[in-house]
Structure formats: structure tokens, C-alpha cells
Please model this.
Amino acid sequence: MNMKLEAQVLNHSVASTLNLYVAARKIESNEIDTARFIKEMDKLFDIVNSSTLNHQKKELCAVTKNSCHVDILKEMVSCQPRYQTRNS
Model:
């Protein structure tokens, strides 16, 4: 998949929409895990594309000695084992 397309698909808006559909019982509740994964990938894309010192979204702020980026990445690594693919 193209990186530009991935960034468009794996974003906060898509994760929020999935959460909304789960809450409205329009899709299965286990899709909440997909929404979490998408939200984390959105954060990861933001971190690797960060460039300014100040931004509304903390993940888009430049990486500095005191920024939150290391903590976010450590949390992502610790959550990684829970992800698995499944056959449709």
C-alpha cells in the first residue's frame, strides 16, 4: 500500500468513526481493536513526520529531549504483542 494512502486511511477520523459505529451497534464490538490500532498508527505517522516545536497535536511537535515521543513509542512497543492478524 502507498504511504500517502496509508496515512489517509490510518488516521484519527477513521478511528473515531469506527468507535462511533461500534457505539451505535452498526458494526461488531471487536472492531474497537481495529480503531485502537488505527489511532496508534496515526500517532506513529505523526511522530515520524513531526517538524515544528509547537503544535496542537503533541505527536506533531518536534522530538526533543523532554518531549512525549519516547514514552508514546515505548507504549506502542509494549502493546505490539497483542496485535495479530486473523483470517476473514
Observations:
- Residues 3-82 form one domain.
- The two ends are 19 Å apart (CA to CA).
- The mean pLDDT is 78.
- Helices lie at 3-9, 12-23, 32-48, 69-79.
